[in-house]
C-alpha cells in the first residue's frame, strides 16, 4: 500500500491528511485566526498515524504544500515535511497550493481562479481549467475593477478573498464559490500520488517554499 502523508499549512488552515493509493483515508485540520500551526501540526501527524493503525515506516512519501501563502505557515509545514522525509529516507513531494485550492471547485465549464489573501487588495492567484490545466502563471497582483475583464467565459473564484474581491469583481460571468475558502491536505492526496507515480519529487536538502514575494521583516512601533 502506498501511504502518503500530506501537509498543508500555507494559509490559516493547518491541515494533515493520510492518503492510500491517492485517496484520503484520514484528515485533521483547523482554521484559526491566530495561526496555530506550530502547536497543532505535529499533534495532527501523530494522531493520524496512530488512528490509521500504521507507523511512520509505512509511509512511502511526504507531500507538502509549496506555496504561495503565509511565510510562517509555509516555513512550519516545509520544515516538518523535510524533517520527516530525511529521517525516514523517503521522497519529498511539493504540491502547488493554488492547484490544491482550485481542485475543490467541481465545475464542467469556464475557468477556475483560486486566490489566497496577501493583505489589502493584493492576492496570490492563478487560472486553471476545470481539469486543472494551468492557463496562467501564479502572480501576486492587486485586484481592481479591471482585473480579469478580458475573460468572457464563466469564472469561478475560490479562496479566502471573496469578501474583499466581491466589491470590485462584479461582472455577470464572475461567480464566487464562498464555501471553498482554504486549501486542504485532503485535496492534495490525488495530486501528490500522481507525482509519486511519475517520480516528480523535490530535493530535500535544497527545497524551499514558493513565497512569490520577498518576506519583509518590520520593526515594532512600540
UniProtKB/TrEMBL annotation:
The keyword Ligase does not apply. The keyword Transferase applies. Residues 36-135 form the Gcp-like domain. SUPFAM superfamilies: Actin-like ATPase domain. GO terms for molecular function: tRNA N(6)-L-threonylcarbamoyladenine synthase activity. Keywords: Acyltransferase, Transferase. Its EC number is 2.3.1.234. Signal peptide: none annotated. It holds the Pfam family TsaD. This is tRNA (Adenosine(37)-N6)-threonylcarbamoyltransferase complex dimerization subunit type 1 TsaB. It comes from Flavobacterium xylosi. The lineage of its organism: Bacteria, Pseudomonadati, Bacteroidota, Flavobacteriia, Flavobacteriales. The gene is tsaB.
Amino acid at each position: 500500500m502506498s501511504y502518503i502523508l500530506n501537509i498543508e499549512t500555507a494559509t490559516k488552515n493547518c491541515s494533515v491528511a493520510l492518503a492510500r493509493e491517492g485517496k484520503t483515508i484520514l484528515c485533521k485540520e483547523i482554521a484559526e485566526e491566530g495561526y496555530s500551526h506550530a502547536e497543532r501540526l505535529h499533534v495532527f501527524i501523530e494522531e493520524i498515524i496512530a488512528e490509521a493503525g500504521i507507523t511512520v515506516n509505512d509511509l512511502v512519501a511526504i507531500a507538502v504544500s509549496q506555496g504561495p501563502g503565509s511565510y510562517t505557515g509555509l516555513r512550519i509545514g516545509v520544515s516538518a515535511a523535510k524533517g520527516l522525509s530525511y529521517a525516514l529516507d523517503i521522497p519529498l513531494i511539493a504540491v502547488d497550493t493554488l492547484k490544491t485550492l482550485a481542485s475543490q471547485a467541481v465545475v464542467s465549464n469556464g475557468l477556475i481562479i483560486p486566490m489566497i489573501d496577501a493583505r489589502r487588495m493584493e492576492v496570490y492567484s492563478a487560472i486553471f481549467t476545470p481539469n486543472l490545466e494551468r492557463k496562467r502563471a501564479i502572480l501576486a497582483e492587486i485586484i481592481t475593477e479591471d482585473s480579469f475583464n478580458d475573460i468572457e467565459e464563466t469564472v469561478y473564484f475560490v479562496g479566502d478573498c471573496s469578501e474583499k474581491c466581491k466589491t470590485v469583481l462584479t461582472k455577470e460571468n464572475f461567480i464566487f464559490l464562498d464555501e471553498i475558502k482554504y486549501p486542504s491536505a485532503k485535496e492534495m492526496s490525488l495530486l501528490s500520488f500522481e507525482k509519486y507515480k511519475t517520480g516528480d519529487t523535490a530535493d530535500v536538502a535544497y527545497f524551499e517554499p514558493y513565497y512569490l514575494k520577498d518576506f519583509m521583516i518590520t520593526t515594532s512601533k512600540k
